[in-house]
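TA notes. Do not distribute before section.
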Amino acid sequence: MPLALVDWLIIAAYVIFTIAVGLYYRKQASQGLASFFVGDRSFPWWMVGISMVATTFAADTPLAITGIVARDGISGNWFWWSLGLAHLGVVFVVARLWRNSRVITDAEVVELRYEGTSAAVLRGFKAFFFAIVINCITMGWVIRAVGKIAHSFLRWDEALPALHAWMSGWWPRNISIADPGEGLSILIMSALALFYASLGGIRSVIITDLVQFAMAMVGAIIFAWFAVDHVGGLDSLVTQLYTLYPERADGILAFVPTDLAGGALFGFIMFVTVQWWAQHNSDGGGYFAQRICSARDEHHATKGTLLFTLTHYLVRTWPWILVGLVALVVFPLEPGAGSALSPEYERVLSDREAAYPVLIMQLLPPGLVGLLVASLIAAFMSTIDTHINWGSSYLVNDVYARFLKPSASERELVLAGRLATVLVLVIALAVTTRIDSIKDAWEFFTALGAGLGLPHILRWVWWRLNALSELTGLVSAALMTAVLWVFFPDLDYSWKLLCTVLVSTVLMFTVTLLTKPVSTERLRTFYELVRPYGFWGPVADSAASARNQQRLWRALAMWGGSAVLLFGTLYGLKELLLGSHGLGAAICFGTTVGWVLVIRSVGAGGSVSSAS
């Protein structure tokens, strides 16, 4: 079904809005590096938090979750649910430390915490690694997802047949984006995101994020409502799943894996015991650090991170999962023998992630289709604009200004930032052509940075870590990931992750203990600026050391209690929607009371500000 006029008008209104925001903030963004990349550290907590949520609400996420539910059931979402442990750790331990550091990028903190040539090498290497490797892989799967979405809605062969025919004549066939129309959609949307992000800097990114999140969230909820109604309601959805999959339905609907003898249980254990702290953003680095450092002060940084965590895991999860379950009913995993298959069904059978956009076209009326398409475009742009800005911040702040031209003026640095946004996007588009499965890209990406998770946590709480510790973790994990993915492609992801983490952790601690610690002078400078928790014996007297450790244990207690609330609420919502409604309501009521206490504690300072 082609888009109706009202659908195109909704999409056009959104496009005009993003362009206007970029033009409006162009002058402010041009004032200097801090203005372009962290908005002069002026954002309140609610803007910081919602911007984080919008960034993680990419066009790839609902597609990937649809594929996860088809392959592993609801419990497959522990792949990303487990990261809630890391995000809660950022709330109670690290958010205020990032804000106190007053850095522009997380790579910059390297030379605050460490010293000498090794620190300079680590900063430069991490800037390149994050800007080009990590960032462009992330952008690649996000762009790949919006291409799959565009393929369902934007029919350029009908709208612009001459252009489509011309592109078909030279379009390469050995890349993942086989259709030139899909490629054209990707180029148009990427160029639009580049335009307003390069003009207005982080201000235009965050302001558009607010609208993009509202659109994406409303769109996801409306779509879930229509999808569930299409199969007769929630109870009917459960009944049809048991009818279609009598032997698998329990596993599909299970909150945790039920196959005790299979790899699903081992994967679940790895997610909740290893992956959440092993991934490279375990301390809230990357674009999270950029947002945190954009906050007005440490209290706004902490509250914004808590808002993100609650919204990311508790508000957004179930609309996506419900659509994934509906897709299993509308497009069964195994079609009936001898039945004629529609082109849409054939597409879903070959790519379960495509079920999400296909269902939009089948289930929604004109107007709502436009809203959903605009919301998915908004979700795409809310992620891609962040990664364009964030990736270029490394190239300018940590490479150009640090090593190539330290004397560059603020005006020159802003110009370099705008040029760097173009470079980052071009590389990401090249990466996109090699990505087929979004979830496979997620797994490779997580393992690639697994050697940085532990050192990123320890550098905030333990004085003994040095630059060579981080460099060893980074290089060893990257090499292990390359070896395992090339020579053992069929090895399960959980085993690949475990091997990578074990090797990188052993090497990291060995190098740490065999090399010299950071000088007391540098540690004291870092300690007085950031005011960290933990074990800082050489630069803290016995009384201060005891207080630091006590505050760390208090923060960890808040972290543990909040983790129980987070996953308890997720389970309660699952029961409320798809299981025992009374049990689910009781659990949600109890966890809501707990969250009120946590939010009041953080809002009043609580265990967070007591360390100041």
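Switch to the second chain here.
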Amino acid sequence: MRFVLNELADLDGISKLPGYGEATPDLIDAILEEAGKLASEVLAPLNKSGDEEGCVLENGVVRTPKGFREAYARFVEGGWNGVPFDPEYGGMGLPYLVTAATFEIWQAANMAFAICPTLTQAAVELLTVHGSDDLKAVFMEKLVSGVWSGTMNLTEPQAGSDLSKVRTKAVKDAADGSYRLTGQKIFITHGEQDFTENIIHMVLARSPDGPDGIKGLSLFVVPKFLVKDDGALGERNDLRCVSLEHKMGINASPTCVMSFGDDADNTGGAVGYLLGKENRGIEYMFTMMNNARLAIGIEGVGVAERAYQHARAYAADRLQGGGDTAVSIDHHPDVRRMLLSMRAQTEAIRALDYYAAAALDTAKRHPEEAVRQEKQALVDLLIPVVKAWSTDTGIDVANTGIQVFGGAGYIEESGAPQFLRDVRITAIYEGTNGIQALDLVGRKVARDQGVAAKALISDIQALDGDLSEKSGDDLEVIRAALADAVRALSEATDWIVKTHPENPDAVAAGAVPYLRLFGIVAGGWMMARAALAAENHLSQGGGGQDGSDFFPAKIVSARFFADQFLIQAASLAATVTRGWNAVSRFKPDGN
């Protein structure tokens, strides 16, 4: 993590941006060490027990597993929820890059726990960008501290991902200007819990005068408990959790069906406060969703790292053979291949996710408008890639971890299945990975004629000169593989730009392989940069960060990624440009 922060994400450069002067390497080291202590001593021990115990709904109140409430109190006490936020509201004011690193630690230790502050931070971002001064005065400080938590309420039983079908209604109260909401929302993560004294729901709803479809949605701030003028909590709002979903994983994270306005005959509905202007709810909600999508990419990184550590420890201890010939299974070539695959993929998604986080910091804080716009375009381009490729990779890594265990990996007692069960949701929520791929090819590539994508491709190609100045088989192989891969990405990108106006369905059919192609090439670029940085340290006589093998191991990981993943680029590009044909001829009735 330190290597990526310093060598690939340019923490030093980020610390020079206005307002980030305190983000020195020494301070960030201290922050990560303290985060590691909380994770290892408090959160990680609850991961398995929380999965086994799950959450219970009792008389409208959700009881989380034993120890979780106390762990959350420790989290808030440490100020961890406020790392990237304005000191005006009690935050630390540190770069989002630092938040990405700390949240990798939380996700690795206990993903079910970490989802709660993930959504709270997304709610804070939403209020920061779109909230009025009045709303900020009421809600920001408590949300930044984590004393109150935030949720995202989008979909409904009949809506799914098609938010144009949202039916929840919001009627304006002429007396005080607030709104009364009635309706039901599903899949609401931490919609009810016993961590915090108040829960602030961000709810998409439809006002009576709004147009049909998605353009008629507005966004409302709906607290579980109403807040009095002096900041004290008032009466319970007319909303409640009516059931909990029984899920494949993240069992310690309550996924709620929320009902707003059950007692509407008496109350008129749940009290909500309009965020921004009516009928612009989707526009505002994308601020929250994009924040969450970057964070979900980090979930993929965290669980992948944990699954790798778990498998590596088992492979080092599990002996095979008899007597003097017994060796641990990590001596066998195929087990080494699996472990190296897990490690290299995890390193690649970590590097790309941190790189995106650093770009976000630059987009927010750079003094030059042109640079801010350029970096924001890069962030917008990378968000679907970070979300989808990182989570698909996290799933693959966790799945490989089970295989390392062999038969034991299929048994819950081994601990390996939980990582796969938990991380599987990351490819689904905040927009399935197929939706992320459609966003990438349609909105982020075709719409701007590939300008942002080609700018990144040029940056990747520029590394070729630096690699060519180094001798050695490893860097030469990495250089050649990256050159071939980025050429395939460039050709696929040109095809999308050319084809989309006349045949958008053909482009949509290849969207998922294109996103994987984009992720592999961007991740391979990060790995090549890592290998180059490691080679530079070695040529200067530098040892490893944690031992003499650190930098050589970086080169091995990058070589493996080049040999086994970058070489997939050509076939993925062919799938993008040719795979649509059979898809278009497939008939859903199966004939």
